[in-house]
Every structure is written in C-alpha cells, then in structure tokens.
Design brief:
The chain contains seven helices and seven strands, in the order H-E-E-E-H-H-E-H-H-E-H-E-H-E. By secondary structure, the protein is an alpha/beta fold. Strand 2 and strand 3 form a beta hairpin.
C-alpha cells in the first residue's frame, strides 16, 4: 500500500469507521485479574484489508496527521465507556497511546477533556501512555501538558520502557503511575 493512500484516505477511514478501537487486555500477573484495557487503532480498509499500526502510524506521524487518529480514538474510547456504564456493566480503565506530535500540533489536553466531559467519563477510567523518547525531546510544552493531565487526575503511563536510551536515573527524574517494559530480545 502506498503511503499516499493512508494520507489521502485517513479522514474517510475515520468517518466510515474503517478505523476502529481494538481493546487489548492488561492482566495483573500475580492474580490473573483483568485490571485495564489498552485501546489500539486498527484499520480495516475495503481496498487493502486489515491493516495493523506499522502500516499507517509512522506515515501519519511523518505527515503530522497522527493527532487526527488519536483524537478519534479518544472520542471512541470515551463513547464506549459511556455505553458500558449506561448499560450498568462493570467498567475497566482504558489506556491510550499519545504521540509526541499530539503535544506539539494540537491541544491534546483539551481534546481529552472535551471527550471526557461530553461522555461523562470519570478520569480514572482513562489512562494516557507515552513513550520515553517524548521526554528526551526537551520540549518544555510536553512537560507542561503532562503536568496538566496529572493535576486533572489522569494517570500517566510510560510505554515500552527500555526500548530507547533508558536508565534508572531517567526514571528518578520523572513521575509515572505505571511503567510498561519493552520486550527484551536476547
């Protein structure tokens, strides 16, 4: 699939729900109990079939369009949380990945807050995941936005710790509610 297809069809894919949230369970290893879900983007294209993130995430980041996908996922997760709660079913928190570009190219805090308010979703049912290279960016705005999320009551998770230039010193200087380790390849 050519990259131009992803760029040219993103808005259509979102509008026609070719892009959907797939939920991956997060299970406590000691108890075996479900403790959260991770909301992940999947694109089921009528021309190209089922696409996993490696086929479209990088392209959207390269062309500064990832915020559109992330805003859609935030909206969908909040909408689904509201449906579950309205049906009286037990709710579980959902984590979502945020791109470094979400902090630079849009007001990601307001996008999240608007969806949470619109669907009346408690903030403890939405966790925000970032990767460690976001914080090595040295962009002051990113830290300020993360502080706003923390102050508003959101949990901030670090995804794929160990995939970059990680060190325990790095962790000492940051605050995370949860640390997800990268798969260690031997």
């Amino acid at each position: 699939m050519p990259p131009s297809y992803v760029i040219e069809h993103l808005d259509e894919a979102i509008a026609k729900h070719w892009v959907r949230v797939h939920y991956q369970p997060i299970v406590r290893t000691i108890s075996g109990q479900l403790c959260a879900m991770e909301g992940l983007a999947r694109w089921d294209d009528p021309n190209w079939g089922f696409l996993t993130p490696p086929f479209f995430i990088g392209i959207l980041e390269q062309h500064n369009l990832i915020h559109k996908l992330d805003a859609f996922l935030i909206e969908e997760v909040c909408r689904n949380q509201a449906r579950v709660r309205k049906a009286g079913l037990p709710s579980v928190a959902v984590s979502l990945n945020l791109s470094r570009l979400d902090f630079i190219n849009c007001d990601i805090f307001e996008i999240v807050e608007n969806a949470v308010r619109k669907y009346n979703v408690p903030r403890d049912l939405l966790h925000l995941e970032i990767v460690e290279n976001i914080l090595t960016d040295r962009n002051k705005k990113i830290g300020e936005v993360l502080d706003r999320f923390r102050a508003a009551g959101y949990e901030i998770w670090m995804d794929d710790f160990g995939s970059g230039y990680s060190s325990l010193k790095f962790l000492k200087d940051q605050r995370f509610d949860l640390l997800k380790m990268d798969i260690v390849k031997i």
